[in-house]
UniProtKB/TrEMBL annotation:
Bias kind Low complexity: ranges: 58-67
Organism: candidate division WOR-3 bacterium JGI_Cruoil_03_51_56
Record's protein name: Uncharacterized protein
Acidic residues bias spans: 46-57
Domain of life: Bacteria
Segments of this protein annotated with the region Disordered: 28-67
Amino acid sequence: MSEEIEKLRKEVAELKIELADVKARCVLKEPETTEASIGPPIPVETQEEAEETDSETESTTSEEPTA
């Protein structure tokens, strides 16, 4: 039993090291964000506009002829 625990502790330690390496690589890959690279704001659909679009879609699909 204690051998299994020791094996698992070693595995956890190795995985923690591997995780730290992966996190470090991710941080290095993140591009620096500058105001110029952000660009203009992207318009976001409001809740009302989204509901209108949904109701329009529903009305067009319900107009299909039924046999």
